[in-house]
Design goal:
Blueprint (H helix, E strand, L loop, with lengths): L10 H7 L3 H9 L8 H13 L14 H11 L7 H12 L9 H9 L6 H12 L1 H4 L9 H11 L7 H14 L11 H8 L5 H9 L1 H7 L18 H10 L3 H5 L8 E8 L5 E6 L4 E5 L4 E5 L6 E6 L5 E7 L2 E6 L4 E5 L6 E6 L6 E7 L2 E6 L4 E5 L8 E4 L5 E7 L2 E6 L4 E5 L5 E6 L1 H4 L1 E6 L4 E5 L4 E7 L4
Antiparallel strand pairs: 1-20, 2-3, 3-4, 4-5, 6-7, 7-8, 8-9, 10-11, 11-12, 12-13, 14-15, 15-16, 16-17, 18-19, 19-20
Helix pairs in contact: 1-2, 2-3, 2-14, 4-5, 4-6, 6-7, 6-9, 9-10, 9-11, 10-12, 11-12, 11-14
């Protein structure tokens, strides 16, 4: 296992104490010990789902939701012969005009509901396997794409022998993980979601390597959240399935609790406002107030407000320092706007059309780096060819806030519960949990200390590694 530590909070307290639907699903499917009121909760949720049924029998909105709702019904223990469910199964078998017949998520849903033996499902599964080259690979599909396929292949393992294919996918995933448990572009919670139900040695290896993510993503109630029933979120069901399927729960409960990765060495009271973004100009820290659309300079010594600067940009996304100006990103149109920090005058504008999901920005190696959470890296802009940005994949899968460091950039991550230092060539340099219980909004490096913004508790803190991650 990739750590000597265990849980900070006893996860079984959440299992026994939570009255959420997630907890009821965990009790049913993982521990097979439902509480008295769980069945009524399931029945109520079933009725909500079936109330969305469309005239053609499909459930929810067109697209992937029809399969997601069918899978949820299966987990809720619905009778597949119930007329509404039978109509939904028939709709999934038919498919849509765009994708006739069942496709990957439909395949899993139909197998879960006992319809995996239908000829249409078998034919669709054979086509999935035949087209492996189109969907199997680290940079193919979306950040959760292969997780959908793995879960379907596991559900259909009795329809078609998919074991070797699953093993090969799980192997490249595990081989590609960094010491922080990250692989470019892929959501680690999606990997846990997939490997957590697959009882194969390759899946256990992958979950073992993701234990640092699981431990740092745990919440103070002992669980991992009650986010929606789907791939693109951290939630308790997928984590408990992974821990119990691979025999890790009791071992982790018996280990000493994971200590904090960080210690606070200085704490400043942050200004009032809806705070976001953080940067350092060589003397002062700057933070952005979204309510007033202004940047605020504060003293790193005592937190006193030194200056307030109106930002002449609607809905600014992030701030940084570029050469001798305060740089602000905007979404529409996509621009970096550089301001004179003394007057607020616009000194320069740079189009950044390559960026899909706007994140933070930082000056690194005489280039402007703008993070793109969709692409899993930063776009590097240089003065000698500003119209030809270059992509650099970072050591975290969905980079957000950025700040320069002497040997790379520190950045937060939208998927992994970490802040990560990536070197100038994309290599992992350092990492640790996202500070303040995951509430770290932004980062700034002053040449000596790493500063982090806690917008919830209105503080800006200099933090230092308490120990190696």
């Amino acid at each position: 296992m990739a750590t000597d530590y265990g849980f900070r909070y006893d996860p079984m307290e959440w299992v026994e104490g939570s009255d959420s639907l997630q907890a009821a699903l965990v009790r049913r499917h993982v521990f097979h010990a439902p509480h008295a009121g769980d069945a009524a909760m399931f029945r109520a949720r079933v009725e909500v789902i079936l109330a969305e049924q469309r005239e053609d029998g499909s459930l929810g909105e067109p697209g992937h939701n029809k399969a997601a709702r069918l899978m949820e019904l299966a987990d809720l223990g619905v009778d597949p012969d119930r007329p509404e469910v039978a109509r939904a199964i028939a709709a999934a078998v038919r498919g849509t005009n765009e994708t006739p017949g069942p496709w990957i998520r439909d395949i899993r849903a139909l197998c879960m509901l006992g319809a995996g033996g239908r000829p249409e499902v078998k034919a669709a599964l054979e086509l999935v396997v035949a087209k492996e080259a189109e969907w199997n690979g680290a940079w193919k599909l979306c950040p959760w794409g292969q997780a959908f396929y793995l879960r379907a292949l596991w559900a259909a393992r009795d329809v078609h022998d998919t074991h070797a294919l699953m093993g090969s996918i799980l192997t490249w995933m595990a081989d590609g993980l960094s010491d922080a448990g990250c692989i470019g572009y892929k959501d680690p919670w999606g990997l846990i979601w997939a490997a957590g139900i697959i009882d194969l040695p390759e899946a256990k290896r992958l979950v073992d390597l993701l234990i640092p993510t699981i431990l740092r993503g745990q919440e103070s109630d002992g669980g991992w959240g009650d986010d929606p029933y789907d791939a693109w979120s951290k939630n308790s069901l997928k984590v408990f399935q992974a821990l119990v399927t691979h025999g890790l729960l009791d071992e982790l409960r018996g280990r000493p609790p994971l200590p904090s990765d960080w210690e606070i060495v200085r704490e400043l009271t942050a200004p009032d406002g809806d705070l976001s973004g953080l940067t350092y100009d060589g003397e002062r820290l700057w933070v952005m107030d979204r309510d007033k659309n202004e940047a605020i300079a504060v003293s790193p010594t005592d937190g006193s407000v030194q200056q307030r600067l109106p930002i002449p940009v609607e809905e600014p996304q992030g701030i940084g320092w570029w050469d001798d100006g305060l740089a602000v990103t905007r979404e529409d149109p996509k621009r970096v706007v550089v301001l004179d920090a003394a007057t607020g005058d616009v000194k320069r504008e740079l189009p950044i059309d390559a960026v899909e999901w706007m994140g933070g920005l930082a000056q690194a190696n005489d280039e402007l780096w703008v993070s793109d959470g969709f692409a899993g890296g930063v776009w590097r802009y240089s003065d000698d060819r500003p119209e030809e940005p270059r992509m650099l994949v970072l050591a975290g899968p969905a980079p957000g806030a950025l700040t320069p460091a002497s040997d790379g950039v520190w950045h937060s991550d939208g998927f992994a519960p970490f802040i990560i230092k990536t070197g100038f060539e994309g290599e992992l340099r350092d990492w640790g949990e996202r500070p303040f219980g995951g509430r770290c909004e932004a980062l700034a490096w002053d040449g000596t200390e790493l500063w982090a913004l806690d917008a919830t508790d209105k503080r800006i803190c200099a933090i230092r590694k308490a120990r190696p991650a």
